[in-house]
Every structure is written in C-alpha cells, then in structure tokens.
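Now for my pick.
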Amino acid sequence: VYKRQDWGARLLTTFTQNDVLVLAKRHHNTKRTYLLVNPLQAKHLPVSPSKSLEMMTCLGKQIAQKYPSAKLVIGFAETATAIAATVAGCLDTECKYIHTTREAYSDLANWVYFSEEHSHAVEQKLYTKDLAEWISESPQIIFVDDEISTGKTLLNIIDQLRETFPEAKKKQIVAASIINRLSPEHEARFRNAGIASEFLVKVSNTDLTSAVAQFEIRPAELVVSAGTAYEENTIHTQEPLMNPRLGVDISKYIDNCKTVAESAMAKISELIAPASSILVLGTEECMYPALILGRELEKQFPTISVKCHATTRSPIGICSDLSYPIHLGYKIHSFYDDVRETFIYNLDCYDIVIVLTDTCSNDLQARADISQALRTKGCLKILFVEGGCRV
C-alpha cells in the first residue's frame, strides 16, 4: 500500500545545467530550430530509471516542502507526464493527478483545448469532468512541465481554466519545471498573473539557434516491417493501468503501476541472467509506468543494467557528430493511432527489451515496427506488456 514518504527538512540532491540539458536540432520545425533534451528524463535518451526518478523526486520534494497542502497536480503531455506523476506522489496521498493529452476522445464536451508553443502538435486538451471539485479542494494548483521558456503555453491553459472554472481565480497557481528559462520580462508576466515559479535549474533565456547551426542533420530512418507480429511474448497484466488523462488519485495510481510492474516481473524473472542488460520502453504519454517497472527491476536484480526511455511524437534531427546527443532514430507507427508517425531514438543492443504500453496494439503494426527496429540493433528477446485498452 502506498504511503506518503517523509522527505525530511532538506533536499538530498541538486542538479546543474550540465546534468539536465543537451541541445538537439528539430527536424523541419520553423518555429524553433533547437530542442532542449534532458538526458535524465527517460524520454529521448536511455537512462537508469532510478536516476531519472531521483531527478523528478527532487522537484517533487521542493514542491512538497513549499506547498504541502496542494492536492491537484496537472502535467503536460507528452514529456512531463512522468515528472508530474512523481511530483504528485510527493504530496498528500489524496492528491489528484491529471495530465493533458493529444489523444482523441469521443467525449467532446468535457475538455478544455489549448495550443502549445513551438510544438509540432499544436493542440492539447485537458479533461474537465471532475476538475471543479478538485480545484475547490486544493489550495494550490500545481502545473508541471519539463521546461518553461516563455510560459505562453501555461498562460494559455490557465486563462482557459479560469474562464471555465471561476473558482480557479481564487487559487494559488504554481508552475513547476525541471528547467526554467523565463526572462525577467516573462517572470514579471507570471507574477502579474498570480503564478509562482518553482524549478530545479535556471537557464538563460537566450536564442540557441546558433548553437545547433553547425550540425548537419538527417531525418529518422523509416522502419520497413512486414506488418505482422513476430513471436514476441505478450504479457497481459493482472489489472489494467489506470488512466491519468482522465485523472487519478495519485496513491492509487502509484499502487496500480507497482502492481503492473510486479505482474510483469513475475513472468519475466526467469529470463533474466545475473548480468543482463534490459531496456524498458514506454509509449508516448505512457512514461511513468515504464519508469516504475524499470526501477523495480533494478531493485529486485541489483546486478543487471536497466535503461528506460520512450517513443515520442517529436521529430528530432539525427547527426553522427560525437557532440550531438541523437545519433540514431527510427520512424515507427504509433501504438495509439496507426496513421500517426512516432519516433524512437538511440536504441542499442540489449539482452531483453520490455515495451510497456497502456493500450492494446490490436493491429500489431506498431509492434512489428518497433520489433524490426530493435532486431536491427541486435535485440532478440522482445516482450510486450500491455496494460489494457484505456485510451
């Protein structure tokens, strides 16, 4: 059973710009050519899940110390879904956690829509069915993103929320992020809008276009698969993953992710040798469950090497320059929409690869694509953990 942890009086870990920021180049994006890549975020680059969660927990500790009574955390998809869940897990056990989504839902009435600056996918939405109650019960509303540069996206959704829910005008708004790049002008804009900023690392808000201009990039490689399934094992968990796109009690969600992880490990533990290398891959917005599974594997099998990252909608340029972070990329079908392109970067050769998704890939095209990409890198043992058709 999940219990709130006692973080104590001090933060245990600090992070620097070198820890959380490397620069890549966006592929065919005219709004902003550069992309801030966090090597500890377990999104674009493989990293130890424990190290990733340590960074996210550091932000969560900071929020819990300053806003201990907060009971509503809203995360931004897709890159901040795990960060926001971790932050919520540091707060009260009754805290509600919900994140925005770009996925399609038939229920059109209970959503607030907004645009995301600099993004290749401009429309996001937030489920509002229970938000009025959750807003009324929380003294603060904690918004969590991986990086805040100008704050326009956040201001957009806060304006939408305040218009839809007048009660939100009475609440303290907190903008939490790993990286904060707000200029003094934008900081003043936040203060005038009644928004407090919390972050792990402050980075100068300079235009970094010239910093990536030297790199000659190419697009991710298109995976050509037969479109049929290999003989990979599929693990159906004992219970489906809860859906944070519609809002969850954070304590129940953490317990749920641990139950899914335990269910998966019970079926794969016999395959793990003492020095195995394992990759746990999440799918797009489904990042937090993959990190929990990865961390549980690290705990149960201390002699193995575990890495974690995820598929993404972000088209990032590929470059072989040793100073560039993304040296390999594959374009694959989405696990959520067969006509949508997604990407996976910096795959390597692992003894075991576990793909954890919160949807069922019934048509198997996404499975065939990711299997082909992994086999190209020499990964022969591929397992799919399907947490249920929740999207």
Q: What stands out?
A: The first strand starts at residue 22 and ends at 25.
